[in-house]
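Archive entry. Fields below.
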Amino acid sequence: MKDFSYVRATSAEAASQAALQAGAAILAGGTTLLDLAKCGVAAPETVIDITHLPGLSDIIVSADAATIGALARMSEVADHPSIKAAFPAVSESLSLAASAQLRNMATIGGNLLQRTRCPYFRDPGTFPACNKRAPGSGCSALGGVTRNHAVLGTSEHCLATNPGDLAVALVAFDATVSFAGKTVLVEDFYRLPGDTPDKETVLGRGEIITGIAIPASAAAKNSIYLKVRDRQSYEFAAASAAVGFELEADGKTVKDIRVALGGVATKPWRARAVEQALIGKTLSAGTVEKASRLAMEGAVAQGDNAYKIELAPRVVVRAIQQLALKTAMKTGGLA
Amino acid sequence: MTRTIHLNLDINGRAHALDVEPRVTLLDALRDHLQMTGTKKGCDQGQCGACTCHVDGRRVLSCLTLAAQVEGRQVNTIEGIAGEDGTLHAVQAAFLEHDAFQCGYCTPGQIMSAVACIREGHAGSDAEIREYMSGNLCRCGAYNSIVAAVREAAEAVNTPVRETAEVA
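PREDICTED_STRUCTURE:
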């Protein structure tokens, strides 16, 4: 890790101002920045520590929405009783991510900005070519080992998977992120790689995330996050799904349903085609299976990751089934 | 040009002054500058848990924490968890009782993680212990004994004992 200067920010405005300098990087939980500095991917000249700023860690849940400060820790949000009650998929996406230690460190703002786990991106010494790290240098993943690379939203310049779990749940429930006086949907916060994979979000230089807001809804309250991975815990998703639904008064017809996918795409992926195919239907096995396959519309396999095209729809099916079972038990539909 | 910064750190309730480069992690500050080598360096990139310490009572990875970040915070390490008179912490005693290690390298991190895991209320069943201790790897594979030790320590520490949902 190259040496840098350390600055402890005294206000959000001062941090933004300092972050405008070339080579400056914002430090929150440190779990991404310091990791990448050790890998040689990040080489900040100045690190601006914002973790001591007051007023950015509040978690407030009202009847309309949850608002969460950018410096709230993953563990605090995951274990918050009102988040668990009104947004179970959000809580679960956090609990199933990383490890207990990392969840105590990583902040919500930083979580949204975590970088891909693409091994070519993370190893500049061995793989100089990476369009995300060094624009125009090429993509070492193309033709390489691609088991964990994306099948959706890729371009000829980048296949790197967005590794987030929380962002998947946020995208499913129309959450917004606020920074520099702006508020945008989390879905629109992330960019597709296209021919500029180095630009991952719409966050500008010197702009700092201040918080997120998740609108309350019946679907968010009746939701689940299912994560399938190569080991049982402490692993990124091979495929994951955030699902929530609301049924009509008849207890079986779908009034509203949200489906978003993780581990398979270059950004947190809302599967609107699946949602549209299920609204107004009952969640019978055949209907759900057929609709879930729509999640892979436009998917492109790159060698080793072809399994994701099979796996992801099955994860959606299982998430819907598990949630349907939970819903039925809660409402007494199953004796 | 080497820049150094002066830090005053509160570690195990004692003040320590040191001059370090800004990039020095809490882990390296403990081991190389303060000669507190109980905290272990395993992967040094946040994947193994050997460097687990507590900052303001929360378990964190000292390899991904800058020493500068914890000025003004309370740091606790493995050196500080036994009693003043040398009486072992319940978790330390349980690890001995259950032989919850082989080579012992991951043990300080396992114990610091377990102390926090129990305090968080995440040691209610074997399944929950496995999930909430998953950030601590043991290459010797002493996991079964580690789970048994954490369960016993949780039962000793928690009064009244939490209702446990045992997984057969």
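CURATOR_NOTE: The helical segments of chain B are 26-33, 90-97, 107-120, 126-132, 143-157.
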